[in-house]
Amino acid sequence: MRMTKTKQNSKRYHSILLGLLPYWTPAIPPLGISCLKTYLQEHGYDVTSFDANMNAGFRKVYDDYFRLVRQDVPAEKRGNFFNQGMDAMRNHMMAHFNYDDKTKYDELVKIIYARIFYADISDEVIAQMNSVLDECYRLLKQYIVAKLEICSPEVLGLSVFSGNLPAAVYAFRTAKEFDPNLHTVMGGGIFSDQLAEGSPNLDYFLQYAPFIDQMIIGEGEDTFLAHLEGRLDDSKRYFTREDMGDTSIDVTQAVLPDFSDFDVDNYPQLGSYTSRSCPFQCSFCAETVHWGVYRKKTPRQIVDELKALHAEYGHQLFMMGDSLLNPVIVGLAEEFARESICLYWDGYLRADPPACEQVNTMSWRKGGYYRARLGVESGSEKVLESMNKKISVTQIKEAIRCLAQAGIKTTTYWICGHPGETEADFQATLDLIEEMQDCIWEAECNPFYYALKGQVDSDKWMAQYKRVTLFPEEATDMLVTQTWTMEDCHPLREVTYERVNRFTEHCRRLGIPNPYSLEEIYYADGRWQQLQKNAVPPLVELQNAEKYIDDRRKVKELSLAEVPASDQDDFAF
Fold it and tell me: Is residue 550 part of a domain?
């Protein structure tokens, strides 16, 4: 069931190749380009898509690189190892194919690690890292040329994010060298942070990358289509919502993402979405800046879409790509509760009042809610207010507890070093985690990231603090995109990263996971099964395509004796 219809339009191009390059965590097939593929096919285009992150060669490069990072970065300085390591690898990858002075290049790599991990990297390890990246780009050139030879596209479009910017830039350049007539188009989340409109990074990038013909900032379907059909001014290097009259697509008329080019059995989940943009304005976030006005589908539409995807691809577990599920979760759970089929769905949730009611979370659990990804951010009321989160610590506690008692996995996201965070504020975060430890399936902490443009409070912080580049300005030719920080803002950046290290150690000591590999997820699920009577099925069971799971009948209301009487009680069964 495709839920599509074909209509013809006049167009300048016919064949299009859409792709996602390393490195992006492949939990689901690429949702953005899968939606774009269906949309363009509906308008008569021949579209093929690919996800290079699933290539075994690129995965080996990633593993080899991080093995080397572990050699020189002490355990006590690793913090959120894979996220911080990806920041370092991204900058290293970009410099690797842009340098012309080997001595300055190697010195830059040392600076990158000194300012991301606050650790020293030896010359020996740098040499080995460089060899790994040589192999990465050898594979990438081979990979992209093979795709072009097989598909013979007229247009190459890549979805680009912070982590895969170096590979995408290299691929675009390689593609133009292979076929100068190929039309190249770049889109993706990169334009909400590193390459935000109005930033020095974007200004520099436009000059640096003449091999990228056009760039699309924000929602891509209508804008990409208008460009392909020649309805936009090709003299412009990039297009935004303003070029489309500031309009957005009607998601209630959206068609299913097309995952047919991917081996979906290699992904733990399938992807879908219930809405676009966000109804809130958290200070550090770029969702509303990127997507514009908030729009949502009806619960019935979402259920029908997930049922159709299940019928076609066989997956029972879905990752919803929304910023928040709150506006649809009640209706969605009610619709699924009336269905004979059992499907599970995972997505971001705000700790608002309905999530603090046990009757609601039990209903959501019975309706298939599998994992709640909660942007908790801080245990300090002052910091939450500064972030414009519009939630309280009491709400956070109640939401986490009620979700856990329903058996729903609770992934909690935290930010260290938001402007104005004191040591007492940070300690409040550690205290909250310790208090709620048995109700937390996962805790992930990231340092506060500042962007010149793109965040809700970017302009406010620019007026309040002095901005400086994290890496030497003379290294811009190698890095292409600079990272900025606020020099006179407290906590200082070094303090922020030290707090991330302390946060990670605190969770390790409490036994709270932050899983990245499947093996770590299996451990986290085993722990959850022991802690929660109503625990959702482990991921390993839902990955078994030959096994259909419906555990809704085993979900039982907790007795009063089993529910903690106050915030101070231990949570245990």
Answer: no
